[in-house]
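Subject: design request, 243 residues
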């Protein structure tokens, strides 16, 4: 089975549509979304509709949880709070109800899919540096062979056993039989690795191979749409440089 993995769309319809056009040619059997369909961008309803149409499974992201009343975001910085308020106001009740229904985690065979750390699902903890792998190393026996996450907007992968963790530095690789993996699949709508191209992943369960795929999209269009709203201009600017 080949699985297409999308995450952190953040209401960027231009990026999502471009990714799906490429994904359509990747011969995937399933599409799984790792959360944060909304937040930051200008087209939350359109992205919700499209994700519901194309994704076989969707898990809850922190921005999704915030806009639909499933978490407190009063501690977020001002720009993010205002963006979430704007999205909550503009999302249809049908889309808000859909977000309220999303699970924190989805599992199939020896794979798990969540937005942040699988150990504290409702807290949406990050995993993007080796120090954050300590708990997973300690809980090695209970972990799935592969844990797919989003949240950091980075292309980050760690392999680990019951004594150590190390970073996988390739963008296309086969999984080692004696190691388990945490793979952050990158961001469709707001990359933060200084590459403005949209990102998604493809995992082949038979070959045990993962690949990051980058996609150019009309960034200027996404920028114009944000600037035409009351959203913070910084959310448009960061799309241009991928931060």
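Subject: RE: design request

Done. Sequence follows.
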């Amino acid at each position: 089975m080949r699985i297409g993995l999308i995450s952190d769309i953040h209401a960027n319809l231009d990026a999502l549509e471009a990714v799906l056009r490429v994904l359509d040619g990747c011969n995937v059997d399933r599409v799984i979304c790792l959360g944060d369909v909304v937040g930051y961008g200008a087209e939350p309803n359109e992205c919700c509709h499209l994700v519901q149409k194309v994704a076989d499974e969707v898990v809850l992201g922190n921005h999704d949880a915030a806009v639909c009343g499933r978490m407190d975001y009063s501690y977020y910085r001002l720009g993010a709070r205002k963006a979430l308020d704007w999205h909550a106001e503009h999302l249809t009740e049908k889309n808000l109800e859909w977000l309220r229904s999303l699970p924190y985690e989805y599992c199939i065979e020896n794979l798990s899919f969540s937005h942040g750390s699988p150990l504290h699902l409702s807290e949406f903890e990050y995993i993007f540096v080796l120090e954050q792998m300590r708990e997973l190393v300690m809980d090695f026996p209970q972990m799935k062979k592969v844990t797919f996450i989003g949240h950091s907007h980075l292309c980050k992968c760690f392999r680990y056993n019951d004594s150590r963790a190390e970073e996988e530095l390739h963008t296309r690789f086969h999984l080692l039989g004696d190691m388990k993996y945490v793979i952050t699949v990158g961001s469709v709508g707001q990359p933060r690795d200084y590459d403005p191209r949209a990102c998604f992943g493809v995992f082949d369960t038979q070959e045990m191979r993962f690949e990051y795929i980058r996609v150019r999209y009309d960034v200027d269009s996404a920028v114009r749409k944000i600037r035409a709203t009351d959203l913070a201009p910084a959310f448009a600017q960061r799309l241009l440089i991928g931060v």
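The mean pLDDT is 97.
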